[in-house]
Write a structure and sequence with these properties.
55% of the residues lie in helices and 15% in strands. The chain is of the alpha/beta class. It has a five-stranded mixed beta sheet with strand order 1-2-3-5-7, with helices on both faces.
């Protein structure tokens, strides 16, 4: 009965009702179309972001394939060349055993002393806490580093090694960050990504 009464009322007042119904229908169509476009845009943006991330990873891996083909001596010289590319001066490669963790030594553009430990490991390996302990014990006490950088070709530092690096303000660069460095990222942008990145607070020599 209520439905019949409503139908009768609508029929009797159709001249006043139909503009309202048309407006509601138009709003529903526009709103539905807008939501569909917004959702399609979000999906496209998400797919594009995912594609770009995959391309960046693939580009890093292509670059790292060349690094993986280097000997450990060539890897040290490669790291030294990256330092020079990014404005470091007085860059020296130790190139010998018994270097006490200082494979590459130089000066950052702001004058701070940079000491680098290079570990040419297989990608599946991890840098151990023992490796990090040795570098912590020599980087500043033996070599007077303002910024101590531990760079490796493997994918990860163990949790203990990374925790020690963060506590001792060692910049830990694993494979992905090294790949970004090789592809053109500036060393100054990578230093803050592990540890506080500032080195000791004494002024540069």
């Amino acid at each position: 009965m209520a439905a019949v009464a409503a139908a009768v009322w609508v029929a009797a007042n159709w001249a006043a009702v139909w503009p309202v119904l048309a407006a509601v229908l138009a709003a529903a169509v526009v709103g539905g179309g807008g939501w569909a476009l917004w959702r399609a845009h979000r999906l496209a943006v998400g797919e594009d972001r995912q594609w770009r991330a995959q391309e960046e990873v693939r580009a890093r891996e292509l670059s790292m394939a060349e690094v993986d083909a280097l000997s450990w001596q060539e890897f040290e010289h490669c790291v030294a060349d990256l330092c020079r590319r990014d404005g470091c001066t007085n860059v020296v490669v130790s190139g010998r055993s018994g270097d006490l963790g200082a494979d590459v030594i130089g000066r950052l553009a702001d004058g701070r002393k940079l000491v680098v430990q290079c570990k040419k490991y297989a990608p599946h390996r991890s840098v151990s806490s023992q490796d990090m302990q040795k570098f912590v014990g020599t980087a500043r006490l033996e070599h007077g580093a303002d910024v101590a950088l531990f760079v490796t070709t493997c994918r990860a530092f163990t949790r203990a090694a990374l925790g020690l690096a963060q506590r001792q303000d060692i910049v830990a660069l694993q494979r992905d960050l090294l790949g970004s460095w090789v592809k053109g990222a500036h060393l100054d942008t990578l230093i803050p990504l592990s540890g506080s990145g500032g080195g000791t607070r004494r002024p540069p020599a």
